[in-house]
Design brief:
Length: 497
């Protein structure tokens, strides 16, 4: 609903997509990425690779936007603004001086009623001249995608056939999803868009110069197009980084992101830079602040939600102690899938591709229909698996962290952490950001959802305790992994039965 779209749109769209095996990419080389140290999933037994003044902007509207958005309390939203530009929170989309075509897209296609609390504060900072840079962090389902998509559509001149807005995402799946939202929201504007994702079958020399007005893609392809003079930056007015914490992290696309930012601002010094994510650790936040300050003399604003608000209390989180690996499979088979098929779709997150293959094989042998997605699959196969899941043709999806971030599917009510996420190159430190992103796949936009963390041994128990302490949230224990009644009670408490 609010941030997920499967409808086609009338705006002109040119999808430049091909087949290539990497889950994500780097502009440093045209060859495949190495199997190790890859974000989103890891091969074999590799670990996950991730690693002024305060103006009060009062929000007077006490109600939720609608049943599909989950709003934090206004007191937990911190807006840090720079300079003397006055900002007034938007109670209605009409307060934002949007075009009639954009308002029609918001109300007719997106079916919004009014801005969420995050949108009410963030959109004026994006859309008010002199268009200052923004570093924004808010939890999943609060309306972040709408903020930057609406920002891009608002800054584009439909009469100018040149790239004017650029959105950079860590995976092709997220890029495609963001384009779907843009098409739907911009249906009546006539604004055109294209995807910049890997194209195995088309040499870069044969790609025509980009004339579409909005470009959404992955950093490696965008860098290649820019270097090959296929993607001009002279008319660029707005640059967006989705999942910016990963895009600026050492284990992510830090060099690519910095290169793109500096390249665009050098050519288009007035280009507005927006950094959006559900999570920002302190190191990434500090780097984001430094890089935004270094690339431009323009002032920048910030928006953050307190960490304790990020634990997604609308979700019921559970931990299940299992004596061994076989017991974890039995829990999934006999409890979660048997009961879960009555309440919606399920995503099961694993650590490695081997774990994904093993679990898939085990469940299929027991007679369950499941699909599995991981980075080693061909991209057309990944697209098909995601499409079938979004259309409800499949109910259970096993995934590495390829789909941990930004994947919107309203019918997902259950998330299972078969393996807890670990920071790369550590043996005992959970990846808190990835955990938050994973569980955020359930109960999207304020719907009911439940998360089951399957724990096996002292190490998992220690990791779970660290996660609980980090988010200041006690995860409820399911008393017995063998008890149908205990799992039924858990689903009832989550509002799913």
């Amino acid at each position: 609903m609010a941030e997920t779209s499967t409808d086609s749109a009338a705006s002109t769209t040119d999808t430049l997509a091909g087949t290539s095996t990497p889950a994500t990419e780097s502009s440093a080389q045209d060859a495949k990425l190495p199997e190790s140290k890859r974000w989103a999933d890891v091969s074999d037994d590799e670990k996950d690779d991730l690693e002024s003044k305060i103006d009060s902007l009062a929000i007077e509207e006490p109600k939720k936007v609608n049943e599909f958005l989950e709003d934090p309390e206004p007191s937990n939203i911190q807006a840090v603004t720079s300079g003397d530009t006055p900002y007034t929170s938007a109670k209605r989309f009409e307060d934002l001086n949007l075009s009639p075509e954009l308002l029609q897209g918001l109300y007719v296609e997106m079916k919004f009623e009014r801005p969420s609390k995050i949108q009410a504060i963030t959109l004026p900072m994006i859309l008010t001249p002199p268009y200052k840079h923004l570093i924004a962090q808010a939890h999943n389902g609060s309306g972040k995608t709408t903020c930057f998509v609406l920002g891009m559509l608002s800054r584009v001149d439909p009469k100018l056939a040149a790239p004017q807005a650029l959105c950079i995402c860590p995976t092709r799946e997220l890029a495609m999803q963001n384009q779907e939202v843009l098409e739907r929201m911009g249906k009546y504007t006539g604004i055109s868009s294209t995807l910049a994702i890997p194209m195995e079958d088309m040499p870069i020399g044969k790609i025509p110069p980009v004339t579409k007005q909005v470009v959404i893609g992955t950093p490696g392809t965008i860098n290649k197009w820019f270097t090959a003079k296929k993607l001009g930056m002279g008319a660029m007015t707005i640059l967006v980084f989705d999942e910016a914490d990963h895009m600026l992290a050492e284990g992510g696309f830090k060099q690519d992101s910095e290169r793109i930012m500096k390249g665009i601002v050098k050519i288009s010094p007035k280009c507005q830079v927006l950094l959006f994510s559900a999570t920002f650790n302190d190191a990434v936040k500090d780097f984001a602040t430094r890089i935004v300050t270094q690339i431009s003399v323009n002032e920048y604003n910030q928006l953050f939600v307190k960490k304790e608000e990020l634990s997604l209390d609308s979700l019921k989180q559970y931990k299940v102690y299992c004596p061994d690996e076989r017991s974890k499979i039995m829990v999934i088979k006999d409890k979660i899938l048997e009961m879960g098929q009555k309440v919606g779709q399920t995503i099961i997150f694993v650590k490695t591709r081997n774990s994904a293959s093993m679990l898939h094989k085990s469940l299929v042998e027991y007679g369950y229909e499941v699909t599995t997605i991981q980075g080693a699959l061909k991209q057309e196969d990944r697209d098909k698996i995601v499409k079938e899941f979004k259309e409800g043709l499949t109910q259970v999806l096993i995934s590495t962290d390829l789909l941990a971030r930004g994947f919107d599917q309203a019918q997902v009510n259950l998330v299972v952490n078969y393996d807890l996420p670990l920071k790369y190159d550590t043996r005992g430190e959970p990846d808190y950001e990835v955990y938050l992103h994973r569980i955020g796949r359930a109960g999207r936009f304020g719907r009911k959802g439940a998360v089951f963390n399957l724990l096996c041994g002292d190490r998992d128990d220690m990791l779970m305790t660290k996660i609980e302490n980090h988010f200041n949230h006690q995860v409820t224990e399911v008393a017995s992994w063998e008890s149908d009644k205990d799992f039924e009670d858990a689903l009832k408490k989550a509002g799913l039965m």
